[in-house]
Amino acid sequence: MIAQDQLIAAISARRNDLIALTQDLIRIPTLNPPGADYRQICEYLDRRLLHAGFETELIRAIGAPGDSDQYPRWNIVARREGTRPGDCVHFNSHIDVVEIGHGWTTDPFGGEVKDGKIYGRGACDMKGGLAASIIAAEAFIETCPDYAGAIEISGTADEESGGFGGVAYLAERGYFDPARVQHVIIPEPLNKDRICLGHRGVWWAELETKGEIAHGSMPFLGDCAVRHMGAVVAEMEHRLFPALAARRTDMPVVPDGARQSTLNINSIHGGEPEQDAAYTGLPSPCVPDRCRMVIDRRFLIEEDIDDVEAEFRAVLKRVGDARENFDYDLRELHRVLPSMTERDAPIVTTVARAIEATLGHAPDYVVSPGTYDQKHIDRIGRLKNCIAYGPGILDLAHKPDEYVGIDDMMQSAQVMALSLAELLLRAEP
């Protein structure tokens, strides 16, 4: 097997290339929603990976949620075969980024380099990880051309909105079948010395309380849907939130506050629609006959999804028992079961050894508070040997002045390259 120092030297020689590649990716504003410039970034990756000897496919997720002629959901899958049979190692990164938001002091799509960091929307989450995986693969291929198996790199759509136009679509078509791919690394920003084994579960739902419209000066002639929703929130505060806070998981979820069950109220909208900013008049005096609330319930591997739903329905029953004319509709929006790879899985132990060789200490093992595309690789692809590992600080994701450290990317690329060496150089020709 080739010496580790040769592989690390090959990574080190690509530092400027890594910076430029990350900047190029940041400068393609792949905002989701709506799903902009997916084709542009896939074509950029296509040119890059073809030059490195990969065979590539550009795949549109036709008919997936969000896909349209104006905003098609494009993905790229690139594969480079080795010289003899062996396992396939797949690096999967999402290409979409969230909205810019307010509070930036740098150009969100400028890719500015300052104090050893590259700034921009998606720098941390997760274009820095995508760039690191490409550099790692290219350095490994150049240094170790006689490898077994195959290396795959994918850039996939819509992770920030559920991944249905990306990894889910590909998994349904066999791209993550265990007969085709044996090891998956998702370079999400969980810190360079952490291995993320999986994530909590999620249940999203929309509740609509119903009332009766009437003149605002005579509210007794109507029925206020907002007050009904207020009673639901009060019941949640009184019983549901304390019950969730009392539950703790054995999953190593970070940060510590996420080791309990949680529920977030994403939004509440009741009464008249918000008027256009140019409107200068007063609202009309009406009793609101509709109020909608979207909830985001994150649950633990020890909880059952059916119990999660039943618990919320019990909240509504208690409210209904205490209030006259309480009427509502509850609609599930999204459900994801928790996922957690075993700590003795091959990809976990391999990356752990590579982290120790690179950083000089053993990794931490964590679970993400939110979901990411491992859910589709696990549930649809039936591939359990999957982790998230990549450069960047999770707390910076979706924040203003998002950045990724250049040294962190370099060291993560070394870890990825050493992992490739262990997995693909085992069998001698």
From TrEMBL:
<dbReference type="InterPro" id="IPR010182">
    <property type="entry name" value="ArgE/DapE"/>
</dbReference>
<dbReference type="Pfam" id="PF07687">
    <property type="entry name" value="M20_dimer"/>
</dbReference>
<keyword id="KW-0378">Hydrolase</keyword>
<dbReference type="InterPro" id="IPR002933">
    <property type="entry name" value="Peptidase_M20"/>
</dbReference>
<protein>
    <submittedName>
        <fullName>Acetylornithine deacetylase/succinyl-diaminopimelate desuccinylase family protein</fullName>
    </submittedName>
</protein>
<keyword id="KW-0479">Metal-binding</keyword>
<comment type="similarity">
    <text>Belongs to the peptidase M20A family.</text>
</comment>
<dbReference type="Pfam" id="PF01546">
    <property type="entry name" value="Peptidase_M20"/>
</dbReference>
<feature type="domain" description="Peptidase M20 dimerisation">
    <location>
        <begin position="198"/>
        <end position="320"/>
    </location>
</feature>
<dbReference type="InterPro" id="IPR050072">
    <property type="entry name" value="Peptidase_M20A"/>
</dbReference>
<keyword id="KW-0862">Zinc</keyword>
<keyword id="KW-0170">Cobalt</keyword>
<dbReference type="InterPro" id="IPR011650">
    <property type="entry name" value="Peptidase_M20_dimer"/>
</dbReference>
<dbReference type="InterPro" id="IPR036264">
    <property type="entry name" value="Bact_exopeptidase_dim_dom"/>
</dbReference>
